[in-house]
Predict the 3D structure of the following.
Amino acid sequence: MRVFERPKMLKDKVFHYCPGCTHGIVHRLVAEIIEEMEIRERTVGVCPVGCAVLAYDYLDIDMQEASHGRAPAVATGIKRVLPDRVVFTYQGDGDLAAIGMTETVHTAARGEPLTVIFINNAIYGMTNGQMAPTTLLGQRTQTTPYGRNAAKEGYPIKVCEMLATLDGPSYIARVSVGSYKSILNARKVLREAFRRQIEENAYALVEVLSTCPTNWSMKPRDAMDWIENEMQETFPVGIFKE
Amino acid sequence: MAEVIIDRERCKGCLLCASFCPKQLFTLSDKFNSSGYYPVEIKEMEKCSGCAVCATVCPDVAITAVDR
Ligand SMILES: Cc1ncc(C[n+]2csc(CCOP(=O)(O)OP(=O)(O)O)c2C)c(N)n1
Ligand code: SF4
Ligand code: SF4
Ligand code: SF4
Ligand SMILES: [Mg+2]
């Protein structure tokens, strides 16, 4: 009996991601969910600027590239013009929580019926590892070589906790892909975020704690353990709005 | 008998599968693929339980199928 198969919705391309980067795991989960929900023909994804900028090369569905941080605005336009489509964005922490924070907050506040997938790897991956709004206190990056210092660089932004105070969103959750069990949970939560849009015409955001072994200067497995052991202290996994 | 199918051209030798496999079945090949990575391989497939933990954690979906 076949218990696992590469989703057909993934194109026959090799991901450009660094070895061990968990962007790929999230791509696969999204592909599996879209296949399972049989929504491939009516789903539109919006790609970010960041390491996932080429996601349209991997997911065999309609996809639109947005300029840096603007994915929720682009997705709003697509959904309003084509309300029968299932529209999701896939954005990094630099994209969603720095340059795109305005779009993020207002799209959530309006309760646009979208699914937002937020890849929090606590760093700007694509541009070689500068501090992100989500960089942990004490974390070394290219721009915080002695570790992020609250007095100088401020505190990490907890996007889920913040957006959960708004009335617009229907579902806000944080998951991790740092272990086998966490990945199974992430799949369930991501599926629910798509279901909210499809069945309840509602806004949902899932923050995924993801690795950047290259810019964290860690081996892939150590990076996964770092999510489970360190990152989750600042960013606890859970459902923030039901 | 369970079987794990590895696409050596997709594998980047990140060893996540190896570190999570409860049976510790993965080793690195001594021949690199066309991208220059040493892919993983399984020599004792008969010991595999078909749990698919390896495929679940593989970020490159290089483990393309697991049969049990
Ligand atoms: C308008 C604009 N400003 C800045 C950049 C440079 N830039 C490219 S990606 C990026 C941040 C990427 O980080 P993140 O969104 O966290 O994605 P990751 O690569 O970590 O997945 C920045 C600042 C850009 N491309 N466009
Ligand atoms: S730079 Fe980081 S986030 Fe980007 S592909 Fe490499 S490991 Fe992944
Ligand atoms: S299916 Fe399970 S036992 Fe078999 S190689 Fe993969 S992780 Fe190991
Ligand atoms: S997890 Fe995937 S890419 Fe990494 S070594 Fe194993 S099969 Fe290769
Ligand atoms: Mg990032």
